[in-house]
């Protein structure tokens, strides 16, 4: 492949999505939320794959917290399989979040290592935006890549449709690449007050900062060295210590980093580190439909409203009863929700948390998360359903001395060989077949059968079948938290 054709989509899977609580949580954040048939990250990978196929490239790179490694593989691998084209999925696994400048620096160093005689263009994409239609996105991305190949650090500028105060703005200057619709960036503007946002909209000179970039590898590393050398130097140190790790479901690579060295990376965005300081910054107009789904108000706009302005997000079997209510968005789970004489509300029902908020306060949902965090509540971190490399478990009941879980294990997957000091477990198979190791014995447990694991016994659960294994687990003991696990062997490297 000619180095003029190499484009590597870099998908940034960070951010807590606190304004979309209680659906978005630390261990299952916004990119994994489904909007339609696929999650936001799956949709982003599908768009990235379309660009890769259009330019004849072959790699997609995900940058995320290390705890999302296998969850991302589960979301993204089926997308790439359905797209075809032998696209390799690679991962950079961060031990903690350090913002977009370090993430992009490490992505650039990864690309230089993989393709030392080339100067690939990184197409930097957030994992949690909603963009349509895909062919228009592919064309705009190619325009941005073309400008990047001419030495421009290129942003995507979204044509504003309202005086939005929640976005940053870019003022366009003179054309620098008319063939590809690129303009010099005159200045970046932080989230403005309403009066100023109205002026920007009326002037026609400003676009929203879409948080997407096309950056030639050498150019972005040089810009970091010139404008934020602490990021560039520490990124080199971190990359030098990178270790390739298990990437069970992908044909690509995965790299983990030294936690102490990674923590020394400055916490700074690419906007502050480079784009607002460099002189060779351009913006390409994006003509596609775009939303960052940054709040419940933004998400509610994706659902059609009835004659009274009410919109419904049906996610379960629940029923909505609406009487004399208007301009309200409801996210339904499996319970009935009744509205009587209310207006301008956001109602979000999940199995363990209910959000009721005034629509005008949609940006303040993060204050709820801050309050819960100060209280030490696990509602910030976990849903009742927790994702693991082997499948999921859902806490059905948690009380003093016992806990009941629904466990679902993917075909061919295995839990670690483990032991608990403080709890015993009863396993009842609901569907599928379980291969159980209990002490020195290995045996099968089939549908409607059960087994008992005493405290202190080494045990392992494997799904030997081709369908999901579903079990009910009843734990009993004086301590039932997840840290009472001693792992002896684990196919996912957690032992």
UniProtKB/TrEMBL annotation:
Domain Mannose-6-phosphate isomerase type II C-terminal: 376-490
Superkingdom as given in the UniProt entry: Bacteria
EC code(s) of this entry: 2.7.7.13
MF GO annotations: GTP binding; isomerase activity; mannose-1-phosphate guanylyltransferase (GTP) activity
CDD domains: cupin_PMI_typeII_C, GDP-M1P_Guanylyltransferase
Keyword tRNA-binding: no
Keywords: GTP-binding, Isomerase, Nucleotide-binding, Nucleotidyltransferase, Transferase
Catalytic activity field: alpha-D-mannose 1-phosphate + GTP + H(+) = GDP-alpha-D-mannose + diphosphate
UniProt domain Nucleotidyl transferase: residue ranges: 9-306
Keyword Cell inner membrane listed: no
A Pfam family reported for this protein in Swiss-Prot or TrEMBL: MannoseP_isomer
MannoseP isomerase/GMP-like beta-helix domain span: 318-372
BP GO terms, sorted: GDP-mannose biosynthetic process; polysaccharide biosynthetic process
Family, similarity comment: Belongs to the mannose-6-phosphate isomerase type 2 family.
Protein name: mannose-1-phosphate guanylyltransferase
């Amino acid at each position: 492949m000619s180095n003029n054709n190499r484009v590597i989509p870099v998908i940034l899977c960070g951010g807590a999505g606190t304004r979309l609580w209680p659906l978005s949580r630390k261990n299952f954040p916004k990119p994994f939320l489904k909007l339609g048939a696929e999650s936001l990250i799956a949709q982003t990978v599908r768009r990235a794959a379309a660009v890769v196929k259009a330019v004849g490239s072959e790699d997609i790179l995900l940058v995320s917290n290390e705890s999302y490694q296998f969850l991302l593989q589960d979301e993204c691998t089926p997308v790439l399989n359905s797209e075809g084209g032998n696209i390799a999925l690679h991962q950079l696994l961060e031990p903690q979040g350090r913002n977009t400048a370090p993430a992009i620096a490490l992505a650039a160093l990864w690309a230089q290592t993989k393709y030392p005689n080339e100067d690939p263009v990184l197409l930097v994409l957030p994992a949690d935006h909603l963009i349509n239609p895909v062919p228009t996105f592919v064309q705009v991305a190619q325009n941005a890549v073309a400008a990047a190949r001419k030495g421009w650090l290129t942003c995507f500028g979204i044509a504003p449709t309202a005086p939005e105060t929640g976005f940053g703005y870019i003022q366009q200057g003179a054309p620098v690449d008319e063939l590809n619709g690129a303009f010099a960036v005159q200045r970046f503007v932080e989230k403005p007050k309403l009066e100023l946002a109205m002026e920007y909209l009326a002037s026609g000179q400003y676009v929203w900062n879409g948080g997407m970039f096309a950056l030639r590898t050498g150019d972005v590393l040089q810009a970091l060295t010139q404008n934020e050398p602490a990021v560039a130097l520490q990124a080199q140190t971190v990359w030098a210590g990178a270790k390739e790790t298990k990437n069970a479901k992908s044909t690509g690579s995965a790299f983990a980093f030294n936690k102490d060295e990674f923590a020394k990376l400055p916490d700074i965005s690419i906007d502050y580190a480079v784009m607002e300081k460099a002189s060779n910054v351009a913006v390409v107009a994006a003509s596609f439909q775009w939303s960052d789904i940054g709040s419940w108000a933004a998400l509610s706009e994706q659902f059609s409203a009835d004659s009274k302005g009410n919109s419904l997000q049906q996610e379960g079997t629940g029923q909505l009863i609406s009487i004399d209510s208007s301009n309200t968005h409801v996210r339904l789970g499996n319970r009935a929700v009744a509205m009587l004489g209310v207006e301008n509300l956001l109602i979000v029902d999940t199995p363990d948390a209910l959000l009721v908020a005034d629509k005008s306060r949609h940006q303040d949902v993060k204050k709820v998360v801050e309050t819960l965090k100060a209280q030490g509540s696990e509602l910030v971190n976990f849903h009742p359903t927790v994702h693991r490399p082997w499948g999921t478990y859902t806490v059905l009941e948690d009380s003093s001395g016992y806990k009941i879980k629904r466990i679902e294990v993917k075909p061919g997957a295995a839990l670690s060989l483990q032991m608990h000091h403080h709890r015993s477990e009863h396993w009842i198979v609901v569907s599928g077949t379980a291969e159980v190791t209990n002490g020195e014995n290995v045996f099968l447990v089939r549908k409607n059968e059960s087994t008992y694991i005493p405290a202190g016994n080494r045990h392992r659960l494997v799904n030997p079948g081709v369908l999901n294994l579903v079990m009910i687990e009843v734990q009993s003991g004086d301590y039932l938290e997840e840290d009472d696990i001693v792992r002896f062997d684990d196919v996912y490297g957690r032992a």
